[in-house]
Amino acid sequence: RARNAAHRQDDVEFAFEIGSGLLTEVRRLQSLLAERDKAIQDMKEEKDDLERTVENLRTALRQQEQSAEKYKEENWNLEVTLQEIRVQLNESQGNVQRLEGEHKRLTKQLNQSRDAAEQHKNEAERQKVAYDELKAKHETDV
């Protein structure tokens, strides 16, 4: 019995050591599982954050594409307007040149008319003087 009791005591200690080792290992594995679960949860949260970020970026990209289209349309309209204004500018410059030519012609004609008027005035004065002389001579003769 004593011999069996010693073996049993050894068996109990061995079983206790195995149990303690297993318990320690189970606790260690549970701790690792908890860390893994926490890491997985953190990854899920990061994934959710990334998905939200990606969706926000997609929304921002769509808005920028819409803005780009709007600005392209506005730019096109401005280009068309610019071309129309350039055509009007060319027409206006042509009109200005034509009117300047007309102005020069009219100024020349005005100067010619003034010269002619001055000549007529001088001629009228000369004839008046001649008339007055002729009248005075006629009165003297009469």
Automatic annotation (TrEMBL):
Residues 106-142 are annotated as: Disordered. One of its GO terms (cellular component) is mitochondrion. InterPro entries: Nuclear_Pos-Cytoskel_Interact (IPR053005), PKHA4-7_TBCA (IPR057971). One of its GO terms (biological process) is microtubule cytoskeleton organization. It holds the Pfam family TBCA_PH. GO terms for molecular function: tubulin binding. Residues 115-142 have a biased composition (Basic and acidic residues). Residues 23-135 form the Pleckstrin homology domain. It comes from the Eukaryota. Gene3D superfamilies: 1.10.287.1490. This is Pleckstrin homology domain-containing protein.
